Amino acid sequence: MGYLRDVPDLRTQPVRDIIFERLRKAIVQGELKPDTYFTDVEIAEEFGVSRTPVREAVQKLELGGYIERVPMRGNRVLGLSPRELAHSFAIRKALETLALRYTALRISQEDLARMEDILDRLEAFAASGRSEADPEQLFSLVKEYNAVLFRSCGSEHLEGLVYAQREVFDRYGVMRVVLPNRVDRSVSRRRQLWEAFRARDPERAAAIWAEHLDESFAIWRDKSGYAEELKDFPFF
């Protein structure tokens, strides 16, 4: 299991936490795909540890909805149906628009300046026409911007909830479907959002981001082939 290579020193934190985090990342990043199986014994051998911390880590994965225990088979990696992923989109919209309202009220001048610098680089990159040839650079700049965006809400708990939902979308490669189909609009909306933050206008910020996510949902639904299945889905 290559995703368990190069693990940190097992003495630096509880073994169960290291195992849980490595397996969780493998699932989220798609290295462990839905409907694949692994056993506690395989993980214990990979780490060179007893089965007790592995069992504890797997229990946390099960509680988090990442896997299910299957008698005589091991642990099955769970996937989301298109309808459940659509619900995750709606949850993400509710959380992120709330976070951005707080960001509009709380963002510091330093973070406004940092965000503007990222925007300048993002706009220059988009204008260069290299986004199709170098999508990783585009994704990197967007993530850098978003990190300031959500950190500035001032609530670690809310920020954590936002990123827990975003991990779901990383797992299913949603951004890689959506972003290349609207690079210019994505960049211009982030500039509009920065202007709303500078004006300390939480409702304007929330409205811009709601429109952004409405469009993201429509692109994902149609480009992923779920248009017919989700035609009646109410996206709030």
Q: Main beta sheet, described?
A: 3 strands, antiparallel
Structural class: mainly alpha
Percent of residues in helices comes to 55-70%
Question: Strand order within the widest sheet?
Answer: 1-3-2
CATH homologous superfamily annotation of the largest domain: GntR ligand-binding domain-like
Report the span from N to C terminus.
40 Å
Mean pLDDT: 90
Instruction: Output the CATH topology of the largest domain.
Output: Four Helix Bundle (Hemerythrin (Met), subunit A)
In brief:
The protein contains ten helices and three strands; from the N terminus they run H-E-H-H-E-E-H-H-H-H-H-H-H.
Topology summary:
Layout: H1 15-28, E1 37-38, H2 40-47, H3 51-63, E2 67-70, E3 74-77, H4 82-106, H5 109-128, H6 135-151, H7 156-171, H8 174-178, H9 183-198, H10 202-223
Description of the molecule:
- The protein is mainly α.
- It has 2 domains: 2-77, Arc Repressor Mutant, subunit A, CATH 1.10.10.10; 82-223, GntR ligand-binding domain-like (Four Helix Bundle (Hemerythrin (Met), subunit A)), CATH 1.20.120.
- 66% of the residues lie in helices and 4% in strands.
- The chain has 10 helices and 3 strands; from the N terminus they run H-E-H-H-E-E-H-H-H-H-H-H-H.
- A 3-stranded antiparallel sheet has the order 1-3-2.
- Strand 2 and strand 3 (74-77) form a beta hairpin.
- The radius of gyration is 20 Å and the shape is globular.
